[in-house]
Design goal:
Elements (H helix, E strand, L loop, with lengths): L28 E4 L2 E4 L6 H14 L7 H9 L20 E4 L2 E3 L2 H10 L7 E5 L5 H9 L2 E5 L3 H14 L5 E3 L1
Parallel strand pairs: 5-6, 6-7
Antiparallel strand pairs: 1-2, 3-4
Helix pairs in contact: 2-4
């Protein structure tokens, strides 16, 4: 299939940053109605790292939920981290985000999301937004995410990350 046909009929990203694309076209994996298709072209290092994460950390360890895999493939985790940690965004480990808190490793976020059996019509309440990674994954799948963060600095960063940088309109933060 030509690249412009990939993802036809599949759900769009809920982030405004991706609304004009069926799916980000140059990621190394596309979810095409339940089938993952390898593509050898990458936009940047992070796209490559994200595709390896999907293959080595998600699929190889039993993540099968198509919506979760699609969400993991479109959320730019590197944009949620402090700049000095962006190169480690797709490592299989938690990373510090400040104020003694960490962002969970990608596999744990995928495992929790899969275990919750999210449906597109669901509304989710999340307690502990952190930097917003789990929030963004949920926002890609469900209709609305309401998330609470009690650490003011993390709240401000998550608000910037989710609403401005990634452009989610179905995320509500307090």
């Amino acid at each position: 299939l030509p690249l412009d046909k990939l993802g036809a009929g599949c759900p769009q990203s809920r982030s405004r940053k991706y609304q004009n694309d069926k799916l980000p076209k140059l990621l190394s994996y596309f979810l095409l109605c339940g089938t993952i298709i390898p593509i050898s072209m990458y936009v940047n290092k992070f796209d490559h790292d994200r595709s390896l994460m999907i293959e080595e950390q998600m699929i190889a360890r039993g993540i099968k939920d198509a919506a979760v895999l699609r969400a993991m493939s479109v959320v730019a985790r590197e944009k949620l981290l402090p700049k000095d940690l962006a190169d480690q965004a797709y490592y299989a480990q938690p990373l510090p985000i400040g104020k003694g808190q960490t962002i969970s490793q990608p596999y744990i976020v995928a495992l929790m999301s899969q275990a919750l059996h999210f449906k597109s019509e669901d509304k989710v309440l999340e307690v502990g937004t952190g930097c917003g990674y789990q929030t963004a994954i949920a926002a890609e799948i469900v209709s609305e995410v309401y998330s609470l963060e009690i650490i003011p600095e993390l709240y401000r960063q998550a608000r910037k990350n989710l609403l401005k940088t990634l452009g989610y309109t179905n995320v509500h933060l307090r």
